[in-house]
Each structure stands twice: as C-alpha cells, then as structure tokens.
Design the sequence.
C-alpha cells in the first residue's frame, strides 16, 4: 500500500465519519432543537467532498430527508461520481 493509498483511505474515513455525524445530528436537531439544524448546503458540501456513500446510507437507515427529492438526487449523483472515481483509481491509476 502506497502513501497515496493510505492518505486516500484516511481522508475518506474522516470525511465519512464527519458526514455520518452531521447527518445524525441534523436528524436529532430536527426533533429537539429546530433552530440548530445543519443547512442542506452543508450536507451537500460534505457529500460532494466524499461523504456521499455513507451519508446516503445513513439517511436511508434513519429516514432523514428521504422525502426531499433534491437532496437524495444530488447525494446519489455524488455517490455515483465517487464510486466511479474509486473504480477508475483502482483499475487505471494505480
């Protein structure tokens, strides 16, 4: 495993944990502290930076924002882009 591989794994792990945390926090805040919600653009930003697969999974499990077609559509597109990038890296760039 090269240094770049380790960096990528650490980056994806950290951004995934943060994405999971803010998604769960926003679900809790929606019920308890409505004024302390996470903005949708912040959620989309974290999904664009690599947290999309985990965020999409967590949103489905905890049923958070699953009725918001725009959120699900954008996060699904980001998930496909990140998975495509991962496959391309493993097949062609290593």
Sequence:
């Amino acid at each position: 495993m090269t240094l770049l591989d380790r960096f990528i794994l650490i980056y994806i792990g950290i951004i995934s944990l943060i994405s999971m945390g803010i998604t769960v926090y926003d679900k809790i805040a929606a019920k308890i502290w409505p004024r302390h919600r996470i903005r949708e653009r912040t959620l989309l930003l974290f999904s664009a930076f690599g947290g999309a697969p985990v965020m999409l999974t967590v949103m489905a499990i905890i049923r958070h924002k699953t009725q918001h077609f725009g959120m699900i559509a954008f996060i699904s597109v980001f998930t496909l882009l990140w998975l495509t990038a991962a496959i391309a890296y493993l097949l062609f760039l290593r």
